[in-house]
Amino acid sequence: MTTRQAIETAPVSGQVAPVNGRRRHVLDLDDFTAEEITAVLDDAAAMREVLDRDVKKVPTLRGKVVVTLFYEASTRTRISFEEAGKILSADVINMTATASSVEKGESLLNTGLTLQAMGVDAIVVRHPHSGAPHFLARSLDNVAVINAGDGAHAHPTQGLLDLYTARDHLGDLAGRRVVIVGDVLHSRVARSAVWGFAKLGANVVLCGPRTLLPDPFTSAGWGSGSSSNGMHNPLANVTVQPDLDAAIEGADLVMALRLQLERQKVGFFPSMREYIRRWQVNDARMARANSNALLMHPGPMNEGIEVSTALAHGERSLIEEQVTNGVAIRMALLYQLVGSGPGGD
Ligand code: CP
User: Fold this and answer.
1) CA of 75 to the centre of ligand 1 (A)
2) From 2.60.40.10, 3.30.200.20, 3.40.50.1370, 3.40.718.10, which CATH number describes the 3-154+324-338 domain?
3) CATH 3.40.50.1370 spans which residues of the chain?
4) Which one-letter DSSP state was computed for residue 198?
5) Ligand 1: distance of its center to the CA of 165 in Å?
6) Residues 119, 317: Cα–Cα separation, whole Å
7) pLDDT of 216 above 80
8) Average confidence (pLDDT) over 133-161
């Protein structure tokens, strides 16, 4: 059975839902309340203070074991989780698909069960298949699962660090205009960011070539103001504007997405030159935004394509701050899931 088939046919044995009010896993931001997001950001602010100390070490997770299980490449996410765990005194073990028994054909399920049998407390997983972290969470009874990026689906810890960075500079995000521009179609970063910013009340504008905006964003189901159960729809404030010059008018924050060059061979837009001309975020474009508008990018960047070099390394850029804040967010999440965080011991 392939991993894809296993994900789709998995029996539900483990509990994904919170137990005694305590979150067991972090799979996406769609099931976070605004209050829960705010609690993570507040804990991250406390962790950020630890990062500024000369001796970056606290005993919070002493005796806990965290495994990073990466089936795809990563610099920021994997290393920041490792750093976060080590600062909190957890034992952190890094595992990649290469050089492990995954190369001999061991399934995701059996890999997870093997790690559970070793008594690990948390698995941080990145996988090319959407739903893989959910599958692990449903299949394991005693391990917290954190999604470090699954297919084109979600990247919730990136979303949280983006929210932290934005809130740190803009304060309350309610009513702020946040433009997410680029390859939205293939971006798990965009999906989690949309949920997060929308839940905190921001007005999110999705921008890019029409071919790189996924159908649900352009269908009538988005922005209707209420969901099928009559509850307020947090996505009501999400709009689509393919014209970047129009989208960026009055923006408080612009998030440029990585153009996933490996996926562009099928011709989503006429040429790279055309893409740069119409959708590159640069100083001239930022002049249309609010005077103190800020730039974010999740990394890794294609400098000179989706964002100009001058802007990426200029005064408006929060890109390196995002990376630093990523360590604090991941410390806060590990603390909440396997330490004595909210609702914990
Ligand atoms: N933003 C992000 O996920 O970067 P990495 O792929 O380097 O982890």
Assistant:
1) 6
2) 3.40.50.1370
3) 3-154+324-338, 156-319
4) H
5) 16
6) 42
7) no
8) 97
| In the predicted structure, residue 238 carries a pLDDT above the cut 90 | yes
Residue 207's beta-bridge partner residues? 181
Q: Determine the pLDDT at residue 136.
A: 98
HEC profile for 28-94?
CCCCCCHHHHHHHHHHHHHHHHHHCCCCCCCCCCCCCEEEEEECCCCCHHHHHHHHHHHHCCCEEEE
Whether pLDDT at 307 is above 90: yes
How many angstroms separate the CA atoms of 80 and 95, rounded? Answer: 15
Higher pLDDT, 13 or 277: 277
Distance 21 CA to ligand 1 centre (A): 30
Q: State the pTM of this model.
A: 0.91
Q: How far away, in angstroms, is 77 Cα from ligand 1 center?
A: 5
Q: Is pLDDT of 108 > 70?
A: yes
74 lines ligand 1 (CB under 6 A): yes
* pLDDT value for 261: 77
Domain at 156-319, CATH class: alpha beta
Task: Among 69, 75, 321, name the best residue to mutate to test ligand 1's pocket (greatest count of ligand atoms within 8 A of Cβ).
Answer: 75
Q: What is the mean pLDDT of the chain?
A: 90
